[in-house]
Write a structure and sequence with these properties.
about 325 residues, eight-stranded parallel β-barrel, about 45% helix
Length: about 325
Amino acid sequence: MALKYSILDLATIVKGDDIHTTFNKSVKSAQLAEKLGYTRYWFSEHHNFPNVASAATSILIGHIASQTKTLRVGSGGIMLPNHSTLSVAEQFGTLDGLYPSRIDMGLGRAPGTDMLTASALRGNNFNPNYNFEFHIRELQKYMSNENSEAKVRAIPGEGADVPIYILGSSTDSAFLAAKLGLPYAFAAHFAPSQLEVALEIYREHFQPSEFLQEPYVLVCINIIAGETVDEAHYLSTSHFQAFVNILTDQRQPLSPPDETELADISDEIAVHLNRMAAKTFVGDQETLKEKLGKFVKDYKPDEIIVSGNIYDFDKKQRSYEIASEVIKSL
C-alpha cells in the first residue's frame, strides 16, 4: 500500500503577520495540500504562545474543512486534560455533522502550554495525576451508539464517524495506543528520542479492536525543502531558531532567516537543539529522497505527517510540493 502523507499545521504566526493573515495562510496551505494528494490536515492545540494561533482547535478545523472538499481535517491533537470529554464529543460530533467522514480526532495528554496556563484553562479540574485512558474510554462511550439510553448523552456526537488517534512522544503513549487498539501518531518533529522503542512497543503489544485490526503508525517529522540544498538550509534557520526559542523560553513570532541568531547559542543549547532536530530533514528533492527513503526503511511508518516552519509563505508552499513529490516516489 502506498505511503500516505499529511500535514501538521500549528497556524504559526510569522513576524509581521496578524491572526487573520495567519488563518488565511492555513486555508491556502490546506487547499494546496488537497490538490497535492495529502491525506489529512491537522492542527495542534497550544495556548499562551505568541507564535501559535491554534488554541481554539475545533473552530479552526471547521473553518479549514469549510474551505476544502475532500481533505480530512482534524486535531493533532486535542489536549484532552484541558476539556471535559462531553464537550469534546459535542464539538467533534458537530464537525462530523457538518463535514461527514472528513474529521479526525487526535488526542494527547500534554497540556499544550506551561503549567500556569494549564491551571487557568482547567480551573478547579486541574489534576496532576490525570487518567488519560479513563477519559479516552469515557469519550468513546459518549460517541458510541450504545450510549443512547444513558442520562447524559452527546448530541451531536453520539454515533459520529470520527476516528480517534493516540498522540505521543513516549513509551507510555505507545503502550496505551496498543492496549486500546487505536492508531498511533508519534511526535518525532520535536521529541524524537524514543521513536524507535515506542514504535516497537506499539507494534509488539497491539491488541486488535473494533476500530483497528492491525497497527497503524503515523510519524510526524519536519521537512524543509528547497530548490537547492543551500536554499533549504537557509530557509531552515527560521525553524531552528524557533526550537532555540522554545529551549530558552523566548516566546515570539517566527523570525525571517536574516534575523536568526543561531551562531550565538551556547554549547548546552546546541546539544538540546540537535536532539530536538534529529528528525528534521533539510535539502533539495534529490537529497530528501535519499534521507526520507532511509527513514521509511528504518521505521516503516504507514503515514508521514509533514511539519516544519518556513518564514516565506511561497517557499513554504513549494516545500509542501517537493515533500509530496518525494514521498510519492518512495
